[in-house]
Amino acid sequence: MVQQDLGRPEHELFLLDAADAMKAYHDKQRVYPSRWVQLPMTFAVGLYHLGDSDVRPTVEAKERWKPRRCTLTYVINSSGVDNYRIEAVDKAGKPHYAISKEGRVEAVGEPGKPTLLARPRLDKPGDDPIALALYLVWEGSHGVYRDEHPGTKGNSVAEELFANTNQLDFYEEMRAKGNFDRELERRRTARLAGRLREDLKSRYPDLPDR
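RE: above sequence
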């Protein structure tokens, strides 16, 4: 199941989100913040609940924050009126990636050796019960579609539209209970704008319409 964030490492997703939050703060305050709690950020790898204590920065985090299920810790290394620098560091405190006002993620340290940390895939839910339920709705919908269309040969945009729609319907129920997922939020936005089929075609460019 192809996804927008599939294969994108944790550090890239986080640092780009952080850059957007830093810019929004600077646009209002004319200075970059020095503590994570000053930013209205929410971040986690995979599904999360708004009640989870580590999906938002706390006062205790100060300039160092390790969001839910993240492997790297994110440090506001410097900040001021004109610029800032955020570094992604490992358990030993060694920086591997950084971002500043320019908004470009850069590798630091030894080139070619930083660890890439991809987000969990919705089709590999692991032991998360909600992720598993979302996967089963998606997978089961494929079976239902093929039962209703016995002449179907292989996957199609129409089948994925059916499966994605059912998955998003179930996600709405989970979302109402405070559970969120970055990729499903993106698909939900596409659906609300009437662009879910277009989004599917961009994710599955080689699939026939039917």
